[in-house]
Amino acid sequence: MSLEERVRSAVAALLYAAGESQTDLATALGVSQAQVSRRQSGSAAWSLADCDAVATHYGIDVLDLLAGPTRASESLPVDRRRAAGRPGAGRPGAAQEEGVSR
Distance between the two ends of the chain, CA-based, in angstroms? Predict the structure, then answer.
């Protein structure tokens, strides 16, 4: 797996583990959802500055992000993880977006 593929996989794993959408990540990074989508699809690359910003957003070390999805997910702080069995529990308002009442 190339470094680019590892970063894309790590970002996808973090999005899932935190219960966030590409839109949530885009907002945190100050870019559009389309820009995150292009980076995740491989049509654009995640820069080192992007990787640093993603790692900071999730509260992990950038080296854990670059190591791949397993290490990145394992490094995610417990308070950033979505609760098991609750879709999107890591983001405010996610339950309402997904039609789940709390």
Answer: 40
Q: Which amino acid is at 32?
A: S
Tokens 């070390």 belong to which residue? 61
Enumerate residues 6+ apart whose C-beta is below 8 A from 89: 19, 82, 83, 95
Mind listing the pLDDT tens digit for each residue in 67-89? Answer: 999 999 999 999 999 876 555 54
65 in Cβ contact with 47 (< 8 Å):
no
Q: How do residues 4-52 score in pLDDT, each as one tens digit?
A: 999 999 999 999 999 999 999 999 999 999 999 999 999 999 999 999 9
